[in-house]
Amino acid sequence: MFLSLKDNISMVKEELNSEEKFFEKAVMTEKFVKKYKNIMIASVVAIVLVVGANLAYSANENSKITAANVALLKLQKDSKNADALSELKMLSPNLYDVWIFSQAVANKDLELLKSLKNTDALILNDLVKYELATDAASLESYASKQDAIFKDLALVQSAVILLNENKIDEARNKLSMISKESSLNKLVAALMHYGIK
Description:
By secondary structure, this protein is mainly α. It is built from 9 helices and no strands. The chain has helices at residues 2-77, 82-91, 93-107, 110-114, 122-132, 136-143, 151-164, 168-176, 185-195. Helix 2 (82-91) packs across helix 3, helix 6 packs antiparallel against helix 7 (151-164) and helix 7 packs antiparallel against helix 8. The protein is elongated and about 120 Å long.
């Protein structure tokens, strides 16, 4: 019986120690929360604001895209619709430039093409430069740019123009600049064989 009383007392002591540690940790947690309460609340508010702002921005961008597509559809139905054209320009300047480019090419309007020389749409900028290159010198100038999309085609066109002007050696030089891996390689081979003898 004596041992069991001793065991009981040590069990009670252990329980008191663990409760004391629990309360000590609770007091420390409470102090931490009181000390950093404002920072924690500000962090939660900041996260909620960032998520909300991101959702609002995404919704706004999707709305702009939808409105720009509607304006483009109106233009496809009626290419003279000035309201749809100005709405497209306001909502999506790059899509507006693409529309203007398509109209300029379809109508062979060089002045309209020239108005797109400084467009921000990279691929479109390259296409405009290619479309505006009409003689051997301008085609060569276009082809000399490192990022020219239609480099090989411009070289072939330049060579054909030179062939028509009876400048055989210059045409051969242009055609030799086209790589063997080019999709125009068969055309180049045919021009070299039949056109430049």
